[in-house]
Amino acid sequence: MPRDVVIDTHHHLWRIDRGDYFWMSPDLGVLYRDYGPDDLAPHLNAAGVTRTILVQAADTEAETDFLLDLAARTDWIAGVCGWLDLDDEAFPDRLAARMENPWFKSLRPMLQDLAPDDWILKPRALKNLAHMAETGARFEVLTKPPQLPHAVEALRRTPGLKAVVNHLSKPDIAGRMWEPWAGAMDELAAIPDVFCKISGMVTEAGPDWTTDDLTPYAVHALESFGPDRCMFGSDWPVALLAAESYGDVLDTARTILAPYLDATARRKVFHDTGAAFYGI
């Protein structure tokens, strides 16, 4: 199929000695090393990816500062998804300061790691989500299926908030999970300002995945949200836990979605929707 220009709306870069990646350990193998712009650039060039969104991997403001500095020095990084404490009384002031930076595009509390599962429904978190809607800030939904119904409720209570679900909310593809995941995704898609990243599937499917394993999940998201609200993300280098390369992830997404997209819809999923959502 034709190789249109691509925006990768979800990848990471990190430097381990910064010390705030609580999840990082030597047993993660390929991930337990530094990843910087020079590591990713050749893969982007080979794959026809022109711009990217760099996403936080630590729940600290120091991580956000680190990523914003990388963006300012790297011409193909179009924006940063950073982190702020959504349960902080000073959140509005902290958000205002961040939004002055042209590379700050969105923020992501790591809901998948926060207890209880309905953390997002805390009164102050909901208040700050409403403030985000008022200011036009973008919200990244990082959940697993147990947190997903609560994210649905929070977004229903926050009309106008532009939000995007990361990694299809991480369904257990290896275990062939379908419900309640599929129904909850339909509920999210019924909220007009919620988008979805076609990303993160290979790591949920395990090392022996095939395109047939991934296809039902990607297609369900595409049919629920439509190409105007779906966008591609590589989740590199995390995807290397289950994929051979950056190109493997992108080519797999192209192969899975090709039968369901004409040329216009393909450009939306792999470029235009992400560009519009992040204001690139």
Briefly, what CATH class? Alpha Beta
* Count of helix runs: 10
Strand order of the largest sheet: 1-2-3-4-5-6-7-8
- SS elements, strand count: 8
Please tell me the CATH architecture by its name.
Alpha-Beta Barrel
Q: What is the terminal-to-terminal distance?
A: 25 Å
- So, the CATH homologous superfamily? Metal-dependent hydrolases
User: What pattern of helices and strands is seen along the backbone?
Assistant: EHEHEHEHEHEHEHHEHH
The coarse overall form would be: globular
pLDDT average, as an integer? 96
Radius of gyration: 17 Å
CATH topology (fold) name: TIM Barrel
Q: Short summary of the structure?
A:
With 280 residues, this protein is an alpha/beta fold. 40% of the residues lie in helices and 14% in strands. It has an eight-stranded parallel beta sheet with strand order 1-2-3-4-5-6-7-8.
Verbal overview:
The protein is α/β, with parallel strands linked by helices. It has one domain: Metal-dependent hydrolases (TIM Barrel). 40% of the residues lie in helices and 14% in strands. It has helices spanning 37-47, 61-73, 91-99, 123-135, 148-156, 181-189, 201-205, 211-225, 246-257, 263-278; strands at 6-11, 49-55, 77-82, 104-107, 138-141, 163-165, 194-198, 230-232. It starts with 5 loop residues before the first strand and ends with a helix. The model has no long low-confidence stretch (mean pLDDT 96). Pfam families: Amidohydro_2 (PF04909). It comes from Silicimonas algicola.
